[in-house]
Design brief:
The chain is mainly α. 70% of the residues lie in helices and 0% in strands. α4 runs parallel beside α10, α6 runs antiparallel to α14 and α8 packs antiparallel against α14.
Length: 470
């Protein structure tokens, strides 16, 4: 294979590009080389979110303690991602379609799909808000003003344009976007060093050194991402060639996560360097707001930098969110709504919710997403590797997903997820420390699912015989 071919997608019709096999299997003729998929995933690497998360973890635990949660993110997310991506590649199915056969049923999967889609609404608003914050800093536009919402809408519309044709247009965008990101970031580092005294890792100290819970809080933050990164990668990994093994999917995940860890550490560098110079109320929030930071350091060039970066990642947010909501709708409606139009809905919803400034709720959101998405994916993996492979309650040769192949509701997965999420919610309302909530939910869910599947001996996998339904 020529080097250029390793990054080239197969030719396909415009209709298939736009629909992107949102509700069907990806055919073998439309599988992509692993390098082409990794190239698209670099859009996630350059998300401004990672600068924020790195700064927050640095402020919590300092250096070198922040390497512990970052290491946890790399190792666990690589393992989980390699497993779930391999299943998606083998089946050619998105996660929401896999959910139908892996313990939830056709309509039950809509619960997980909806939860999945909600994540992308937050990330879409998060990244778009950063652009508005950059413009607010440079041009003096109020962050909650109507003009800021207009700017958010315009930049979101640009992301919508690039996401309209799915994987194919994203491949083109990410191919040229990464070199631009790296170049502008290097310029920004020189400008930072020219105008500020760089605060190196040896001076990164926790802002709450006497709080014994800060490490648990840091692990809770990254725990909200260990599964989400696998989810995001799998939306594209289903296009990988069927012969790719666990080593190949692990390589894709590890390569992406190592790059993410570098961005997180650079986020901490930015936060600790600027923090002593800020006079605004709540300087920790401002120092971890990339839109404000890059506009402050780089001026107009920083605004351009945030716009380019936001469009790259929000293309991915719109695309994955549209897959989730398309499948949620498809589970209940007789007439499907195409994936593209769900992206329009996500854009409109993002514009409406933009004024709340979601950056200030990052820690709460990561706790919530850790509870819901981690529980969901751990149930899927438990179903595939334990209920199906080990206990033989169903086949692993082919995962069923069509309405005539699976039951509408599989109570095993649904009950397990509802109970686990309820346990996690008890932490959110303060009945026990919230930073343990996502861990409690993600362990209870799969264990309960295995128990329920064993008790029912897997009878809710396949469609019930006609005589049994009478």
């Amino acid at each position: 294979m020529a080097w250029r071919d390793a990054f080239t997608s197969p030719a396909t019709s415009l209709d298939d590009q736009m629909e992107s096999y949102a509700t069907s299997r990806v055919p073998s003729s439309q599988r992509w080389p692993a390098f082409a998929i990794l190239l698209i995933l670099t859009g996630n690497v350059t998300a401004m979110f990672w600068f924020t998360l790195g700064g927050q973890i640095g402020f919590l635990v300092g250096w070198p303690n922040m390497l512990l949660p970052i290491g946890y993110l790399i190792i666990v997310s690589t393992i989980l991602g390699s497993l779930i991506m391999r299943i998606a590649s083998k089946e050619g199915l998105s996660l929401v379609l896999l959910t139908r056969g892996l313990g939830f049923g056709a309509k039950g999967s809509a619960l997980a799909s909806f939860v999945y889609g909600i994540n992308y609404i937050f990330y879409f608003i998060f990244e778009g808000s950063i652009v508005s914050h950059a413009l607010s800093e440079y041009f003096g536009i109020g962050q909650g003003s109507p003009m800021a919402s207009v700017i958010f809408a315009l930049v979101g519309a640009a992301a919508l344009y690039f996401a309209w044709r799915g994987m194919h247009s994203m491949n083109i965008l990410q191919r040229f976007g990464m070199p631009i990101f790296i170049g502008l970031f290097i310029v920004g580092m020189f400008m930072l060093a020219d105008g500020h005294a760089i605060v190196g890792p040896g001076q990164w100290e926790s802002l709450s050194p006497n709080d014994p819970t800060v490490m648990a809080q840091a692990f809770s933050l990254v725990n909200g991402q260990i599964v989400f990164q696998a989810l995001l990668a799998t939306d594209y990994g289903r296009f990988s060639r069927t012969q790719i093994g666990y080593r190949g999917t692990a390589g894709i995940m590890f390569g992406e996560l190592v790059m993410i860890s570098v961005v997180m550490i650079l986020g901490a560098l930015l936060a600790f360097t600027l923090y002593p110079t800020l006079t605004q109320d709540n300087p920790e929030l401002w120092a971890t707001d990339p839109g404000f930071v890059f506009a402050l350091v780089m001026g107009f060039l920083g605004v351009v930098f945030t716009i380019i970066t936001q469009i790259r990642i929000n293309v991915m947010n719109l695309y994955s969110g549209s897959l989730a909501f398309a499948n949620t709708w498809d589970a209940f409606a007789k007439r499907p709504i195409k994936r593209n139009y769900w992206m329009v809905g996500l854009l409109i919803l993002g514009i409406a919710l933009y004024p709340i400034n979601v950056l200030q709720y990052t820690d709460t959101f990561l706790a919530v997403t850790g509870i819901m998405t981690n529980t969901w994916i751990f149930i899927l993996l438990a179903d595939y590797f334990i209920c199906r492979k080990a206990l033989k309650y169903a086949s692993t040769d082919r995962i069923e997903y069509e309405d005539h192949e699976v039951r509408k509701w599989n109570p095993c997965g649904i009950i397990a997820m509802v109970v686990a999420v309820a346990i996690g919610a008890l932490g959110l309302v303060g009945l026990y420390p919230v930073y343990y909530a996502s861990f409690a939910a993600m362990f209870v869910g799969p264990i309960l699912h295995i128990i329920l599947t064993a008790i029912t001996r897997g009878r809710f996998y396949a469609v019930a015989p006609v005589a049994a339904r009478v």
